[in-house]
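User: For a reading group we're discussing how well predicted structures match intuition. Take Fibrinogen C-terminal domain-containing protein. Before you show the prediction, I'll give you the sequence so everyone sees exactly what went in.
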Amino acid sequence: MYSQVGINTNNPQAIFHVDGGKDNPATGVPTTAQQSNDFVVTSTGATGIATIAPTNKLHVVAASNPLRLNGLVNAQKTDSLLTVDASTGVVRMRSINSISGSSSSTCNPGIKSGTISHNQPYGCSGYDPGVFTSSAADPGIGGSIAYTWQQSTDGGTTWTAASGTNNVQNYDPPALTIPTKYRRAAANYCGVVYTNTVDIAIDGASSGIVATPCALAPGESTSLSIGLFTGSSVISWSVSPSTGMTFSSTNTTTTTLTASSGAAVGSYTVTATITSPGCGNKSFTKTITVVPAGVNVGNLKTSCKEILDSGLSTGNGTYWIDPDGSGNAYCAEQVYCNMTDNGGGWTLILKSMNNNSDFKYNSGLWASGAVFNTSDFDLTNSSTANALYKPYNYLSAKDFWVDFVTTPDLTPFTVPTAGTPKTLANATLNANIANQYLNQACQNNGINSTYFTPANAYTIEKGGSGNGINLGSSVISIRFGVMTNNENNEIFNTSDSGIGIGIANIQQSSAGNISSGNSTCLDCIQSCSIYTGTNGNGFYKAILWAR
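Assistant: Thanks. Here is the predicted 3D structure of Fibrinogen C-terminal domain-containing protein, as structure tokens, for the group to look at:
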């Protein structure tokens, strides 16, 4: 049938037209009143209810409340909301971030936050506060409310999602070891609003040490403060090392710390010791950084890549950055950047220059992130000292480069943030490598020559291959690099070979490894080995970069 279809009408106005009231005219266009009981489907697939000219895929017209949905479930999803354009009636998805603020000016009445409280906001380290009490938020005309509890451990400067179940009206925090502030966000179409703040004091302090700014140059000062719970008092402020550092007062809740013109560049630990009812004397610490004269802490970039992209690179070398961009948890950190190779913008993560236990696959450093030799930036072949740098614990990256010092390199690779088998989490490098199994999708035609620089640097098995972070099979596991196998479909089951940093030969079988931070393999055979020149297996000095 190649024609328009009309039901209860011999004058269809669309491909399919139902005149529910049998009141449409024999010719011409039905009136608005006559269309009120009509249903049409147009040639473009648009559906109209009570209109013969739908302007959207589904267009419903009624004098009031044209749409009703029964059985919807409140899933406490807080990233987006359904909204209706008041002028057109069109339904749209809108992110909460796009309507954040105290309240939408178009809502009258608007959303109101409610209040939170706690009947015992004080305890010693390990104190479990128990459940907060609160009044519910008033949605105004904005519809259902989504709650999110937030916490701050730096005096209210930075707020993050509270741990545990944080999307309920009354929150139950875990046991605390440091002073923590809490507030509750409430969101709907009308906007996002926040309750009052409640401080849970620990060991006599209602907030930890706040430093403004948290880094200073020689000759400059920083303001320090600590919040005290009722009945607590400051015993003393101190700093280590103390040479060139002076307090304006050592026994008040606020003080000023000044670095003399001769103060050494580096990290200083500020300590505030207080006495409190029931908890005795307790100490709180914060790291203050003295940067070289001329470094503008307020304009620091967050990574080597951002420095490069901002046109501020002066070549390979050390730079100062503010990793978290807030001047709080990581205020001013010195890092080494490679700005010239493989596109530049690389941050130094580690160097493996000594075949000891530091960077073997099963080393505890991968999980602990215990940095060492952080001021040693000697990347030449003469270096014999390993180092793990601070960016390992705060950098979120997806591009990695295993840079062998004297042998051909692995080409930089990207761990996908979407796809299969698993993806890189939006977390620090430490969190990803310690807790997840991540890899790129398998190859099935042998290892790609683009994995190496130069492309003909290695001969390798012509089976399956894959590269990434924390790869593993029953034979070979690797922290950073490439695994290969002679069988196309067994790359993550019985992989025989690997190249990179931190390789484990789990079964001590005939597997060939070029690795940094691992012993040479046992009982190697040619068909399962990777070769570089005439030396196919062994330890090679390597550097790990990320961006």
